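REQUEST FORM: STRUCTURE PREDICTION
Request ID: SP-0412
Submitted by: Lab K.M.
Chain count: 1
Length (residues): 335
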Amino acid sequence: MHNSNQKLKGIKLQQYTVGFFAFFLFFTSCQSKKEVEPTEAPLNQVAVLVDDKLWNGELGDSLRNWFASPVEGLPQEEPEFTLNQYPIKLFEGYSAQSRNILVIKKTAQSEFKIIEGDHAFSQNTVQVAGHTLSEIIDTLIVHVPEIRQKFRATEIAECQKRLAKNHASTRRPNRKFRVQMNIPPAFEVAFSRKKFLWLKKDIISGSVSLLMYQVPAYKVSRKQPLKDLIQLRDSIGRKYIHGTVSKSRMITESSYSPYFYKTKIDGHRAYEIKGNWQMKRNFMEGPFLMYAIQDRVNRRYLIVEGFCYAPSKEKRDIMFELESAMKSLQFLEKK
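STATUS: Completed
RESULT:
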């Protein structure tokens, strides 16, 4: 009888131990998943999983040229993406900490694959493989535009998600221009008129600004939209954006032509302009990004612009947040 009781206690203890161990595994796995979730990882980062030998040679040089090339429109060189390289054996198990992952291996067969996470997880894993170095590089050459577009779209979406949680409470764009936009925190109204709004945020040794204004559709011609928009931009600077020195005003830097693209914002046709601004008669300058959005219903162009003055800071992420905010713009009326 004594032995049977001991056996019964042993079975119960074993069941308890197994149950506790299973619970421990479940708990730690949940904790691990929570810790490696990439939602709060820095923006514009790419984890490159590749062996040191490949990274330190021709392949690494090509990757830096493709993914860390200078951002257009900035006054100094800053990379489009910050590349963080890790040897595959050391890092592969922790890759979930990054939103954008590029895995490169030498294998018997060539391979290219993009694995996307679910909507909540927002992660891209790009797998590239080849039997030789030239096969790997040839595969990348074909798919680099697709990879860059995927990574950039993911970062824009992530930044917009953060802005949606923390955006400023001002409703002026809604009332004044019949649009809504996720404005970054800490922006305050610097100046406002019937068809013009200037929002501004002070930063260490500088400031960040958002402008919104509208012009009649005929002000922007189809034949020379860039010229017309730069003239409009400079007229706004002459009227509203002044420096501390007498008769100083913001103008578009004329030493080189700004970058100019056609795009869409909220389904509306738009022009995108990237360049640098200067304060005439004052030693101030910085980058700007401008969208002129066609609004056929109201026969107007709605213009939104972000620019910054940050002489002692890197500007890539400042301008990227402004771009993400402006691309979140939505019209409150039907097209």
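NOTES: The radius of gyration is 26 Å.
Reviewed by: T.R.
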